[in-house]
TrEMBL record:
Signal peptide: none annotated. This is S1 motif domain-containing protein. PANTHER family: CONSERVED VIRULENCE FACTOR B (PTHR37296). GO terms for molecular function: nucleic acid binding.
Length: 286
């Protein structure tokens, strides 16, 4: 029976030195500490703390590079690679990069983390005992996060995306607060692991934050109006949208709520740049 498993820091004893490294043991099982994984010379019978993982051949090996992360703990780790139909690899502080399986990532690959993004993960083993990284669950975030003070309303705040859903995006701020960005408060869906900055629009009673990635109304109206004009110019001066259009169609095309869309249309009509006829909108020059 195997007692030593990948994903844990263990205190093992040097059984003997061989050409490729040190053979370590817990008295029942032996693992190899390669020379390039040893941070110093070791003596026979010396006790040493090592982290266990599988090498490329699937064999259990040891390293004296001790990560902050092991099975049962959570930490932020950096994404170093993304492989289509497989998942992303993260750096936990050892030579081998660890896979976050596509099964643990959003269905849409466009919101998978990019290289340099950071994920809040734990380590786990699959059915074959192979080491994997797994993103944090909501229960853990609730336990680990702090209650935000009321004074944060209208303040700018930054955070890392730890969960994405159709209705919105969930972030953990650098202060340890939980935040939620409703789909109507973002133009594009941020990636899992992406750093975002937004404005606190509500501090809820439970200490969580509602955050907006959209600018203040006046600034946002100008930006939204420019996006509508650009769309019209790219579509021969007309579009099948008006202030009566379906909210979902507006959101799918412009990444705007219907209210924001109507404000932008109103601005453009006041400026004499557009007009609406028969459920469509036209550039005035057309």
């Amino acid at each position: 029976m195997s007692y030593l498993k990948a994903g844990y820091i263990e205190n093992l004893t040097v059984a003997r030195k061989i050409e490729t490294g040190y053979v370590l043991t817990d008295g029942k099982q032996e693992v190899l500490l390669h020379m390039n994984e040893a941070s110093k010379e070791l003596a026979d019978q010396e006790a040493v703390d090592v982290f266990l993982y599988q090498d490329k051949k699937g064999q259990l090996v040891a390293t004296m590079a001790l990560p902050e992360l092991e099975i049962g703990t959570y930490d932020w780790v950096k994404v170093v690679d993304k492989v289509k139909n497989l998942g992303v690899f993260v750096d936990i502080g050892i030579q081998k990069h660890i896979l976050v399986s596509k099964d643990e990532l959003p269905l849409l690959e466009k919101v998978w983390p990019d290289q340099g993004d950071e994920l809040f993960v734990t380590l786990t083993l699959d059915k074959k005992g192979r080491l994997l990284a797994k993103p944090v669950t909501e229960d853990i975030v609730v336990d680990e996060s702090d209650k935000a003070p009321d004074t944060l309303k209208n303040e700018t705040i930054g955070g890392q995306v730890y969960r994405t859903t159709k209705i919105g995006t969930f972030i953990l701020t650098e202060e340890g607060y939980r935040g939620f960005i409703h789909q109507s408060e973002r133009k594009e869906e941020p990636r899992l692991g992406q750093w975002v900055e937004g404005r606190v629009i509500e501090v809820k009673e439970n200490g969580t934050l509602n955050v907006s990635l959209r600018p203040l109304k006046q600034e946002g109206m100008k930006e939204d109006a420019e996006a509508i004009l650009e769309y019209l110019e790219e579509h021969q001066g007309e579009m099948p949208f008006s202030d009566k259009s379906d909210p979902d169609s507006i959101r799918d095309t412009f990444k705007l709520s219907k209210a924001a869309f109507k404000r932008a249309l109103g601005k453009l009509m006041k400026e004499g740049k557009i007009e609406q006829r028969g459920g469509k909108t036209f550039l005035k020059s057309k």
